[in-house]
Amino acid sequence: MKKLDCIGDVHGCYDELIELFTKLGYSTTGKVPRHPEGRIPVFVGDLTDRGPASLDVIRLVYRMVVVEKMAKYVPGNHCNKLYRFFKGNPVKHKHGLETTVAEYEALSKDEQRIVKDQFITLYEESPLYLEDPEANVVIAHAGIREDMIGKSFQNKKVRTFVLYGDVTGEFDENGMPVRRDWAADYEGGQWIVYGHTPVREPRFKHKTVNIDTGCVFGGALTCFRLPEEEIRSVPSKQPEVPEKFRSFDD
């Protein structure tokens, strides 16, 4: 059976990513981390922004997914915004994008061209969400409702849900978007692995798991392994920002 290692929101936390691969049993001595059993890493979006080394994360994931074809990736909302920036669209440099742009603008013109081309290729060649029947899993950045699985990636409602979650259009007292708890209503038989909303511990609800444990906010970087259904995490090296974590009344 196919063995997957689903990795939550990295947000430029390159050192923690390498540490996580080491903890998972990957060899990190070559150009890309490799597992002796051929396990497949799957990145659950939001590779960049806020953390200290977003461009190093782009370079590594591009090599693993596009060049070596030994990993998978689905984009998150921050990935979508960076893609639009690289394509020349007007986007506001805030909510973390400013850190990635600062890294980018510090490069030479040749280095800028290379990393921009790498990310655009990575983004354009990857699916909005990944459905893997063999592993009995759907991997989507902010999650996906059961009735949306299998629908076209061009469907605007599906795209919005997968990138941003089940948003209401309202904001809470901390300025964070209010999102409905779609996982509470999930009744499907496939695992849904997602991130996007930082939680203190991986949140299991029915057959869903949120593995964004807020590494960039001082939490941890987390992996959910299939078929073992096991969690592995490494602690963050970043300062703690407690107000960024969400709690649920489970």
UniProtKB/TrEMBL annotation:
Gene3D superfamilies: 3.60.21.10. Coiled coil: none annotated. Residues 4-199 form the Calcineurin-like phosphoesterase domain. SUPFAM superfamilies: Metallo-dependent phosphatases. It comes from the Bacteria. This is Bis(5'-nucleosyl)-tetraphosphatase PrpE.
